[in-house]
């Protein structure tokens, strides 16, 4: 990898490139795509706006209400939505988007399809314990300027034993003979 990429922690690959510097890019043929993949079809894409907002886009296709888009048309859609950089992701029958447990588009198969991969976005405030990211079943929240974090996960990650006294409605955490209640 190039030297200036040494601090990259996550990466996502897709193709073809659709938008660069806010302009459409005719990249599909240069990236080795040909034939029916260049025709109108269901599409997915990811882009970023000038103010760093991420756009995740799905376009239905091969159904009565939508033929889909060509890659060139997808590039112009991403620009219309505000992308300054955008790349196509998988397309065709696997173009499906879930939001909060529900499919929000009409897949061309008209049903959910088993997929070998996907892009999952989880919005959580990052919490680190001993330089390791902690993930919670209930996300941290900010209320009235205070950050509320599920303590069970933190105590468990620190090696503490957790106990709940239902009668007293009290939680205790014990680690190395130290007790917190």
Strand order of the largest sheet: 2-1-5-3-4
Q: Judging from the principal axes of the Cα atoms, what is the shape? A: elongated
The overall strand count is: 14
The helix/strand series, from N terminus to C terminus, equals EEEEHEEEEEEEHEEE
Q: What attributes characterize this protein structure?
A:
about 180 residues; mainly beta; 5-stranded antiparallel sheet; 3-stranded antiparallel sheet; about 30% strand; elongated
In short:
The chain is mainly beta and 181 residues long. Helices cover 9% and strands 30% of the residues.
How does this model look, in words?
- The chain has 181 residues and is mostly beta strands.
- The protein folds into 2 domains: 3-103, no CATH class; 127-180, no CATH class.
- The chain is built from 2 helices and 14 strands, in the order E-E-E-E-H-E-E-E-E-E-E-E-H-E-E-E.
- The strands form 5 sheets. It has a 5-stranded antiparallel beta sheet, with helices on one face.
- It is elongated and about 70 Å long.
- The relative contact order is 0.12.
Topology readout:
Elements: E1 17-20, E2 23-24, E3 43-49, E4 54-59, H1 71-80, E5 83-88, E6 98-99, E7 102-103, E8 127-129, E9 132-134, E10 141-143, E11 146-148, H2 151-157, E12 161-165, E13 170-175, E14 178-180
Antiparallel strand pairs: 1-2, 1-5, 3-4, 3-5, 6-7, 8-9, 10-11, 12-13, 13-14
């Amino acid at each position: 990898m190039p030297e200036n990429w040494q601090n990259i922690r996550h990466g996502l690959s897709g193709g073809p490139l659709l938008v660069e510097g806010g302009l459409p890019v005719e990249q599909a043929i240069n990236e080795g795509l040909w034939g029916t993949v260049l025709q109108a079809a269901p599409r997915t894409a990811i882009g970023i706006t000038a103010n760093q907002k991420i756009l995740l886009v799905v376009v239905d296709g091969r159904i009565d209400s939508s033929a889909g888009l060509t890659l060139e048309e997808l590039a112009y859609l991403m620009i219309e939505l505000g992308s300054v950089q955008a790349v196509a992701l998988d397309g065709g029958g696997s173009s499906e988007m879930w939001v909060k447990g529900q499919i929000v588009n009409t897949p061309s198969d008209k049903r959910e399809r088993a997929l070998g991969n996907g892009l999952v976005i989880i919005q959580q405030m990052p919490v680190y314990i001993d330089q390791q990211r902690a993930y919670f079943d209930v996300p941290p929240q900010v209320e009235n300027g205070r950050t509320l974090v599920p303590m069970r996960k933190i105590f468990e990650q620190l090696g503490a034993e957790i106990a709940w006294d239902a009668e007293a409605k009290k939680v205790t955490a014990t680690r190395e003979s130290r007790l917190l209640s």
